[in-house]
Amino acid sequence: MILKQDFIIEGKHQKPILIDATHLQNKINLPIIIFCHGYKGFKDWGAWNLMANAFAKAGFCFIKFNFSHNGGTMEQPIDFPDLEAFGNNNYTKELDDLESVINWVSKNDTLKNISNFTNINLIVLQ
Known about the structure:
This protein has helices spanning about 50-55, 85, 90-105, 110; strands spanning about 1-10, 15-25, 30-35, 60-65, 115-125. It is of the alpha/beta class. It comes from Thalassobellus suaedae.
């Protein structure tokens, strides 16, 4: 059975980062994939949930997240209500968000029990 867990972490730029982890239940030592959506993207847009499920079935812990300044909010993560945040977005903020996510992944107790932290992979869209 595939399990999807949602998390919210604080970003470095006063905006939260919405994360989800998709993996097979009752499995351990799963390699990790961190997925970074592209510009004007959202972690739940299009086929990204199908992709998360496919990677989970293949034996990965698939982690996707919304960049803090992508224009979405916690209440509306796949809409575009925060135009000010989007207008202030830049490459440095996205790199800082990715660093926050990687640091969170390596310290998260839930993931610690199922994942292999020596095998972290990135998929980055631009």
